[in-house]
Design a protein that fits this description.
Largest sheet: 7 strands, parallel
Strand order of the largest sheet: 3-2-1-4-5-6-7
Mean pLDDT: 93
Helix content: 40-55%
CATH class of the largest domain: Alpha Beta
Number of strands: 13
Number of domains: 2
Radius of gyration: 21 Å
Low-confidence stretches: none
């Protein structure tokens, strides 16, 4: 099939999932066309089956903000016409589903072009639920030919917020070959030169990720176990976190690694992942860590309980409970056997439930169904 995919090309879950999905579809023989304003974060290799079409933005003084949604709709129409797309897949509702709706309407005189909208979280719980966006978000989701969400939690939130049903749950996924524990000893030596335990956190450093909780937790561990904290990612909360580490006197042992292109390499040397988020619709970083045999301590919010199995692959703690997070971290880091057991069980759970071989065919079946319906 010829599939058009639109994502935000940033260091966030929706962009990562959309990029990984495109790569997996290409390996299965489909032709994938990414349509966005920049090359997606995880998309490094382009070839005859994976192509990128850049949206041209018009910077005109009349527009205080360039109308990206309209430019995107025009680009989708252009690519659909030139490449004979069978289906569109829009990751994140606003403005992508809106742009797909406009492109579909423009293309109708030639052919009906169905589109799938995948909901990733903040497009429902934060952006889409705002008064100024709620009507257009609801309309765009309702106009989608199919709607999927990445967790049961998010499907329920969509129903609660917008009164919309019929959301199919297709979870996030990992490629079991790409995400497995392959320790790079030179990397580990650079991060833990004295053989310290490595706590890790991976996110886009937005306020909802609560990265300061990682530092508060780490501060409570220092007397119990030699360790270092590695924060992978970047975003608006970084400066405050750097200052907090300074205030604690931990600056030398809190490593800001920045945006890491191969996160599996970093996870392969980690002993523990911290996910103290205020909310998570799924928790992709947690899944990637489990696949790399890294136990996870996460807050018991949103879709995280669907990913982290309490006492089996890690632990779930109440939101903001630093003491509970530190206690569980201490248990894992001071007990090699427990760490290995949780890690092995996490790998087994991730591969059994969220492997690409289980998840990608669900998307393929959805595309085929929509394309067949459009042909009729």
């Amino acid at each position: 099939m010829n599939i058009g995919i639109t994502v935000f090309p940033t260091y966030g879950g929706s962009g990562i999932v959309g990029s990984e999905l495109g790569r997996e579809l290409a390996t299965r023989g489909h032709k994938v066309h990414f349509i966005s304003y920049a090359l997606p974060t995880r998309l490094c290799k382009l070839d005859e089956r994976t192509q990128f079409h850049q949206v041209d933005l018009f910077d005109y003084p009349l527009f205080e903000f360039p109308p990206y949604d309209l430019a995107l709709a025009s680009k989708i129409f252009e690519v659909a016409e030139a490449q004979k797309l069978d289906v569109l897949h829009m990751h994140y509702a606003i403005p992508h589903a809106t742009a797909a709706y406009l492109a579909r309407e423009m293309y109708k005189p030639t052919r009906y072009l169905p589109f799938v909208t995948t909901l990733h979280g903040t497009d429902i719980t934060l952006v889409g639920s705002r008064k100024s966006f709620l009507p257009i978000t609801k309309f765009s989701i309702a106009q989608s030919d199919a709607v999927t969400s990445i967790s049961q939690y998010l499907a329920q939130e969509t129903c609660r917020t917008f009164g919309l049903g019929g959301v199919e749950v297709i979870p996030n996924f990992i490629n079991a070959q790409d995400y497995q524990r392959r320790p790079n000893e030179s990397l580990r030596a650079s991060l833990a030169p004295r053989g310290e335990k490595l706590l890790m956190h991976v996110s886009n450093f937005r306020p909802v990720k609560r990265i300061n909780d990682c530092i508060h937790t780490f501060a409570r561990l220092r007397g119990a176990v030699p360790a270092r904290l590695v924060l992978c990612g970047d975003g608006p909360e970084r400066a405050g976190a750097e200052q907090l580490a300074q205030d604690y006197g931990l600056a030398d042992d809190v490593i800001f690694a920045g945006q890491v292109p191969n996160i599996a390499e970093y996870l392969s040397v980690a002993n523990l992942l911290l996910v103290p988020s205020e909310t998570e619709s799924f928790g992709l970083a947690a899944l990637e860590a489990l696949a790399c045999e890294v136990p996870v301590i996460a807050t018991a919010v949103g879709g995280l309980p669907e990913v982290v199995r309490e006492g089996e692959t890690g632990y779930l703690v109440p939101l903001g409970d630093i003491e509970a997070m530190a206690k569980r971290a201490r248990e894992i880091l001071t007990d090699e056997r427990k760490q290995r057991t949780l890690g092995a069980q996490g790998r087994l759970w991730a591969v059994e439930q969220f492997n690409t071989e289980r998840v990608i065919p669900q998307y393929e079946a959805l595309y085929e169904r929509l394309a067949a319906s459009a042909r009729r």
